[in-house]
Design a protein that fits this description.
Structural class: alpha+beta
Largest sheet: 5 strands, antiparallel
Order of helices and strands: EEEHHEHHE
Helix content: 25-40%
Number of helices: 4
Number of strands: 5
Radius of gyration: 16 Å
Number of domains: 1
Shape: globular
Strand content: 15-25%
Length: 158
C-alpha cells in the first residue's frame, strides 16, 4: 500500500455511460530527468509507502505542502486526488531545497545500492540525507518540467 504520485499534463477520462469523470496524468519519459534508481527510471511517476512519505515530508520539511488540508496549496487535498500545480508550489520546493542544503551541506542526491525492500531507506552505508534529497530533487525537476511543458499541469495521487 502507498501512494502513486504523477506530475504532468492533466488527462480527463470521461465515461459517459457512468456519468463520471476522472483526471490522471499522461506518463512521459524525459531523458534529462534525474535517475536515482532503476525503479523510478526517468518517468513522471513514483511510488512510496504512506508511512514512508510521511517520514520523507517530515525530514525535508514538506508537511505543509502535502498534509495541511486547510491550505489552498495542499497537494494531498484528497486521496486519491488531483490538484493543479502552480508556480507557488515550485517556489516552496526550491526554498525547501535551499534550506535543506544549509541543514545538510554535504548531501548528494543518491540512494546508493538499493533494491525493492530498502527503497525508502536506501543503502545503509549511504547517509539518509542523501536518500531524502533524491525525493526533493525528483519533485523539483517534475514540477518545473510540468509548469514549462504542460497546458494543464497537475499533481495526482492514487
Amino acid at each position: 500500500m502507498g501512494f502513486d504520485f504523477r506530475v504532468g499534463e492533466a488527462i480527463i477520462d470521461h465515461q459517459q455511460e457512468d456519468y463520471l469523470c476522472s483526471i490522471d496524468v499522461k506518463k512521459v519519459n524525459v531523458k534529462e530527468a534525474p535517475i536515482f534508481n532503476k525503479y523510478w527510471g526517468q518517468t513522471n511517476k513514483i511510488h512510496v509507502s504512506y508511512g514512508g512519505w510521511k517520514e520523507i515530508c517530515r525530514f525535508i520539511r514538506l508537511e505543509d505542502l502535502f498534509y495541511d488540508t486547510d491550505a489552498d496549496y495542499c497537494l494531498l487535498q484528497s486521496h486519491p486526488g488531483c490538484v493543479p500545480i502552480t508556480p507557488f508550489h515550485l517556489t516552496v520546493l526550491n526554498n525547501r531545497y535551499s534550506e535543506y542544503l544549509v541543514r545538510c551541506p554535504s548531501a548528494i542526491p543518491t540512494f546508493g545500492n538499493i533494491n525493492k525492500t530498502n527503497m525508502l531507506e536506501g543503502d545503509k552505508s549511504n547517509p539518509i540525507e542523501n536518500n531524502m534529497l533524491c525525493w526533493l530533487v525528483w519533485l523539483i525537476f517534475w514540477f518545473k518540467w510540468a509548469l514549462n511543458n504542460c497546458e494543464r499541469p497537475v499533481f495526482c495521487n492514487s
